[in-house]
Design goal:
Order of helices and strands of chain B: HHHHHHHHHHHHHHH
Number of helices of chain A: 10
Radius of gyration of chain A: 19 Å
Distance between the termini of chain B: 33 Å
Shape of chain B: globular
Shape of chain A: globular
Distance between the termini of chain A: 44 Å
Largest interface: A-B, 33 and 29 residues
Oligomer: heterodimer
Number of strands of chain B: 0
Strand order of the largest sheet of chain A: 6-7-8-3-9-10
Amino acid sequence: MPVISVQGLDLCYGKRQVLQDITMQVQRGEFYLIIGPNGSGKTSLLKGLANLLPIAGGRIEILGRPLTSYTRRQLAQKIAVVPQQISLDFPFTVADTVLMGRAPHLGLMRVEGAADHALATEAMHFTDVTHLADRRLDQLSGGERQRVIIARALCQQPEIILLDEPTASLDPAHQIQIMDLMERFRAEKGTTVIMVSHDLNLAALYGDRLLLLHNGRTEMVGSPVEVLIAERLAACYGCAMLVEKDSLGGMPRVTPVPQKYSQIL
Amino acid sequence: MIGRLVLITLGLGLLLALSGFLGIAIGPSGASFGDVLAIFSGKAGSQSITSTIVWQIRLPRVILAATVGATLALGGLVFQALLRNPLAEPYILGISGGSAVGAIIGLLLGLSPFPGVPLAAFSGSMLVLVLVLGLVSGQSAVNRDSMLLGGVMMNAFCGAIIMFLISVSQTSQVHQILFWLMGDFTMFNTGQLPVLLTLLPCFLLIFVLARPMNLLLAGHESAAALGVNVQLASLVLLVTTSFMVSIVVCQSGLVGFVGLVVPHILRMVLGPDHRLLVPASILGGGAYLILCDLLARTLSSTGEMPVGIVTAMIGAPLFIVLLWRSRRCR
């Protein structure tokens, strides 16, 4: 049974339709990447899966149950979301932020117990932020902050984790660090990872399957080798793409081609 | 967490009790601390003038000041969490002004002191709240400038309506309304205490929602993803806070900036956790306004001034500092 099953999904922002007739199935433990150009509906799809946007049409099932049958708290026990950014107006410490991942399991009044603190400590250790435990969130670098939010998601003990461009604005070393972390998270905890990414090469290196969106519709679903085809990418992104095999594992390596080299292709 | 909560509650409870004692003991009648202690311990005669002053005038006044301070501080805390803006508070957002307009209309229409006038005040505060929030709705992040401008605009508009209402009201009511508008605790009597009891369930409700308030600080979508029903929690918090503010505005008029000063100081000391800040704001806000009222009663040699003048003199400079700092951080 797939952990996520989407049938003919339509999503709207007000009157503007952003997704049309999306169908996808994600299996347990899969590393699933959603790619596509700006405005193709990637983040909207992620929000739809987390019930943060109302469904205009179609059906989403999470672990065999309709998404709308879950209360917010029940859903948060199954799905964790790592947003692109969080507000830092009233910053908590790293330890307090990670511990907030226990909120869906505690409800309104229950205070965190020893088991919750142990899970938060384990999550901080896993994401290598233990040494930052007493620092405030606004005092961290972008990469450190992203690892803290991932630790919070880990502390939530979800079956599915949704990440919205977690590597945006990070340097290559930190991008790999975050992707390796998610790879390890999936391997050790068996968690299903669904990630929105703009980086086609990272998607090729880590994704089991890719969903390519274009103008709010599914362009293609498949393995990186099946999806990352130069002609298809050129049509979606509106610029010439060079697709080669990388020398590491033979996965596709995508290079957008500047205008000045376009005659060479 | 529970250990810190107990410690903070005890510490600030002690501060509140001490402020209350000073508020009762100090005044123009010249009663000494010893006299007041004797009255409380039952050693002094209940018929003495000092005893009457303590039981009939100063104690009710201190209770009112503590309740108003607690409510306004808590109101500021809730608005700051919901709007993720350290400058938000009922007075600056125009919520208190809306309550005042409603209360004056209720008074002029001859509505009953309870529940007629407070309900009219509540209607006024809700109307302003809807208008101010309407100004910032649809924006991905709450825009501080437009929200504050909206609040300033609503305050000015409410001020104009109040002046209009005063200009058409009877001369005998004008002085009373003007003094009340600046924040006045002198008209309160023990018969009004039950009205203040309606605030206790509101305090409790906000304490129960302290964890969702913590999660809302990271953003509404982030809170929803952590299991918070954002619409329901926001609605309950906004309506409860507006109701509380309406009740205290009816009793004491417009007392500004308490909701800015108290949560700001407490947040600097205790951090952003609302499970600590809610009880701390109730106790700390109460102590703060008792002391402000004490200053208002004793600073001027020619008689007492409205407490709203003291809170504005402390709060307005802090507001400017916070505004300057928030602009510098952007």
